Amino acid sequence: MRPTRAATLTALAGALIPITSLLAPVPSHAGAYTVAAGDEIAVHSNTGSTTCTLGYTYTAGATTYGVTAGHCTRGGGSAVSDYDSGATGAVAVAVNDPDPLFDDFALINFGTSRSVSTINGMPVSGMGVPDPAITVCRSGIRTKTVCGQLDGRLLGYQYNVSGMPESIPGDSGAPVWQPASDGTATIVGIWLGEHHTHSGTRTGRFTSLTESLTDLVVAGLQS
Fold it and tell me: What is residue 196's predicted lDDT score, i.e. its pLDDT?
């Protein structure tokens, strides 16, 4: 029987502090590195590395965190490299339901690396709820920045997007964002991949940041 969503997230939230306390010490020079939405990252395991895109970064207290897709950690690895900046980190919590239409996100501890709130040269105003009246874009390391239209909810916290080219492995975890009239970008989700219906229709899909991650009650998540 599948555990209830609330029970799973409650257990993960309770485990977050002991897990992060066991992470390897961050090198003293780590503060010189930066991490930002759209960076190319790799999660390393004994069997190899999985390349993905970093979707969102923020700092809570003295620690910087990043968010990507949970399925990027399926290889069982915990060490993370940011190939754009040289920053290193470790997976703190990964939520990766075997059913692709359920929860799929991961939190990475980047230690004292600095979070940079820009994407495509635009300042990032923070996280927000997807607005169906505004163009929605993703910025993955493979297909770069492409835009389309929000097609409503797929299931749970996942949304459908149409009008975008098909994503390529490596785009997983990419920031899904919407432009604002003041020239800033609001990150509304983490890219997960494609959804194919029985009739052959293809849409893109992403998970909402605000809905998925606030369930973990991570202190300072939206700071």
Answer: 75
pLDDT reported for residue 27: 41
Coil, strand, or helix at residue 204?
strand
Tell me the C-alpha to C-alpha distance, in Å, between residue 142 and each of 1, 15, 198: 37, 33, 27
- Rounded to 5 degrees, what angle do the CA atoms 65, 172, 165 make? 135
CB atoms within 10 A of CB 104: 27
Look up the CATH architecture of domain 5-118.
Beta Barrel (2.40)
Three-state DSSP class for 211? helix
Say whether 122-210 and 5-118 share the same fold: yes
Closest of 191, 156, 167 to residue 177, by C-alpha: 191
The answer to whether the beta carbons of residues 215 and 9 sit under 8 Å apart is yes
**CA distance linking residue 129 with residue 116, whole number of Å:** 21
CA dihedral 185, 138, 20, 85 (to 10 degrees): -80
Q: Judge contact between 21 and 44, C-beta under 8 A.
A: no
Please list the ranges in the chain whose pLDDT falls under 70: 1-31, 98-101, 214-223
Residue type at 89?
A: G
**Where exactly are the structural domains of the chain?**
5-118, 122-210
- CATH architecture group of domain 122-210: Beta Barrel (2.40)
For 144, left (φ over 0), alpha (ψ -120 to 50), or beta? Answer: left
Q: Tokens 């501890």 — which residue? A: 109
